[in-house]
Every structure is written in C-alpha cells, then in structure tokens.
Sequence to fold (193 residues):
Amino acid sequence: MTRAFWLCFVPLFVAVDAIGILPMFMNLTEGISEKSSRRLVLQSVITAMAVALIFLAIGELLLRLLGISIADFMIAGGVLLFAISLSDLLTLEKPHRQIDPEALGAVPIGVPLVVGPAVLTTTLLLLREYGYKPTIIGLVLNIGIAGIVLWFSHEINQVLGKTGAKTVSKLASLLLAAIGVMMVRKGIIIFIK
Fold:
C-alpha cells in the first residue's frame, strides 16, 4: 500500500475509535437480542458511510461558500480534535442518553459515535492533503472495521474486558490529541506563509 493511504488510514482509525465506542455500543444495546443488535450494526454502518461520503463530496465546496480557508479549517479542526480527545481522556464514561431503539443504529451509533466531528474534520483535512482515493479508501475501511468490531462486540468485550476497552480508548484519544496539535501547527504554518 502507498504511503498516502497509510497517512490517511491511521488518523481515521484513531478518529473512528472502534474499540473506544464498543463500551457505549454495549451499553446502548443492553437487553437487545443478538439479531436486533446486528441489524443495528448494519444500520449504523450504512448511515455512517452515507454521512461521511456525502460530507466528503460537499464539505470542501461548503467551506468555499462560507469563505473558510484550509488554514482556518485546519486550525479549527485541530482544536476540535484536541478538545474531543481531551474530553475523552478526562472522562470515565462516554455520556449515556435515553434513545429510541428503532433509531439507535442511525443515531447515535452511526452518527455521531462511528462518524462524528473528529472523523468529519479529519476526512476533510486528509482530502486536502492526500486527495480523494487514499482518503475514501481509508474512510471506507475504517467504517468497515468499526462495523466488524460492533458486529463481534460481545466476543471482543469478553476478551478485552471493561478495563482493556477503556485503556485502548484512552490511548486512541491521546493519539487523536497529538493529531489535533499537529493540524493546528500545520494550519498556523500555512496561515503565516
């Protein structure tokens, strides 16, 4: 695989944080049959993929219409990624809300758990830096990986345990914070030039 692919895949892998959303998914689907849980996984993957690809297609145009430069977006996106990761690092549990079981796969699992602000921001920044092909491949593969992790959630949770899943999530949040700082740094460099 090319270097550009890996430079897209890794930040998106960290932003999606499939293992990190596993405890929340388990919490949201508690008491739901395995068949219903798997239907929700399919619904969430389809929703996440659709939202991410639509945003990928029109996101840059939207920025231009709003008069937002790439440097502006890199700095704002970096700060947002840093804030999201800092919030995840400093909290013990991701917030839990009462959700309609029929809409559970689309919202909140598909959006914003699988594809949320961190993924959308990272996607646009990677698109600008590496182009459509590696960004789309990295995005699709990472949403697919999240779907596989959620599909086998019960088995993975038994192997990792609650503490293991939280540890992996915290490490992913730390990497996301570093990526956020890097984006701010690059945005400032572009802005100064």
